[in-house]
Amino acid sequence: MFQFAVESYRSCSPAASCFSEMAESKPGLRKPVFIKVDQLRPGTSGHTLTVKVVDSKMVLQKGRPDGPQVRQMRIAECLVGDETGMIVFTARNEQVDLMKPGITVILRNARIDMFKGSMRLAVDKWGRVEVTDPADFTVKEDNNLSLVEYELVNVVEE
C-alpha cells in the first residue's frame, strides 16, 4: 500500500495539481438530520432541531455594558419547543440577542447538558443558531423535558 501511494505521488507532475484530485474525491458535507424535541436524551450531542422560542430570561450578565464585547458575558435561559415538546435552551453571549419569544430558530450541532439532574439544550462554538422563517407548528407546552429529573446510577456487574 505504501508503494502505491508513492507511485501515485510520482505520477503527478509538478504542474498538475494532485491535491485538487484528492479534494474532488473527498465526500461533501452530509445533509443534516432534523430531530424533534421528544427524541432528545441525556448525554447526547450533534443534534439539529427547528424550534420556536416560547420565553427568554436573562440569568447572568457580567462585565461592563459599555466595555468591549469580548469582556462581557451574558447567559439566558430560553424555553424552546416544537410540536412534540419543550426544553430549556441555554443561550450564551451573541445567541441571547437571537432568542426573542415567537422567533423560529434552527439549532445546529446542539448538545444536551445536565444541570441539577435535568436536561438543558446548548450550542457551543462548534454549533450554530440561525433565525429562520416562522414555522407553522404550535409548541406542545405540556411536555417539558427539562422538568424530568434524571439520576445517575452506577451499575455493578457481578
Automatic annotation (TrEMBL):
Residue ranges that the Swiss-Prot or TrEMBL entry lists as coiled coil: none
List the Pfam families hit by this protein, alphabetically: OB_Ssb-like
Where is the Single-stranded DNA binding protein Ssb-like OB fold domain positioned along the sequence?
A: 40-131
Signal sequence bounds:
none
Its protein name is Uncharacterized protein At4g28440-like isoform X1
Query: What does the record give as the organism's lineage?
Result: Eukaryota, Viridiplantae, Streptophyta, Embryophyta, Tracheophyta
